[in-house]
Amino acid sequence: MNKELDVLLSILDKVDELTMDRFLASDLRVETKPDMSPVSDADKAAEELIRSELSQAFPDDFVFGEEQGGNTDWEKGRHWIIDPIDGTKNFVRGVPVWATLVGLADSKDIILGAASAPAIGRRWYASRGEGAWVTSAGIGAGRFHEARRLHVSRVSEVENASFSFSSLEGWRDAGKLQQMVDFQGRAWRIRGYSDFWNYLLVAEGAVDGAAEPELDVYDMAGLVPIVEEAGGTFTGLDGKTPGPWGGGALVSNGLLHAQMQEALG
């Protein structure tokens, strides 16, 4: 485990403690952003904590986050890319499926990433060439242990595959609703596990593919190395744009990627 990942996992221990303290809190403060999405005081505090810790550990790196933005000249230098709470709508309603996502991009190559979901007691992480791993434990921060290496599935036909997505609304807005409906009719199983979890289940081999037409870079950056180090493929809907840079996600075990791109791209 390299220094950057070691530091990141230590930071996530602190962030998990913060977010779990605010999850289900009776005094949680929620605002509406200009794009009509919610943001809580936990989102803001978590990003501020991550920024502060990363700035101390790696002062020469850039930091870009969902709530505070930052430098987007991705071709130059290293950028830590933060989604302090992916699944804020779940978080504010008391649904435990949410996670803190952090990825490190070096000239647009995402070299490590982590996702921590303390309310369901799981944490995933990966760095280039070192494999992808998940730990699980009881609810709460600082209790993760027994890392298990991840491998994608070997299902090679859509008719035998399990797929996940976040919402039909996004496919409608992208003008691709009928494509998704037709695709659902072909697949063995379709479920909406939501947000980050769609893609991490692909990395675990529990789901064979997942897709979403409209995403931001911070929704994906922390997930890319985990999927790819588990043997999967992570691109834009065109099936070619690498990692988080395509404005959407087409994620598979690799064997299904061309079939998914043909149906949904």
Task: Describe the structure using short key phrases.
single chain, 265 residues, D-Maltodextrin-Binding Protein, domain 2, 9 helices, hydrolase, Inositol_monoP_superfamily, Inositol_monophosphatase-like
Helix/sheet category: alpha+beta
Strand composition percent: 15-25%
- Number of helices, counting only DSSP H or I runs of 4 residues or more: 9
Tally of separate domains = 2
Protein model, in words:
Helix 1 packs antiparallel against helix 2 (41-57). This protein folds into two domains: 3-149, 2-Layer Sandwich (Fructose-1,6-Bisphosphatase, Chain A, domain 1), CATH 3.30.540.10; 158-264, D-Maltodextrin-Binding Protein, domain 2 (3-Layer(aba) Sandwich), CATH 3.40.190. The protein has 265 residues and is an alpha+beta fold. 33% of the residues lie in helices and 25% in strands. The protein is globular. The model has no long low-confidence stretch (mean pLDDT 93). GO terms for molecular function: histidinol-phosphatase activity; metal ion binding. Pfam families: Inositol_P (PF00459). Pathway: Amino-acid biosynthesis; L-histidine biosynthesis; L-histidine from 5-phospho-alpha-D-ribose 1-diphosphate: step 8/9.
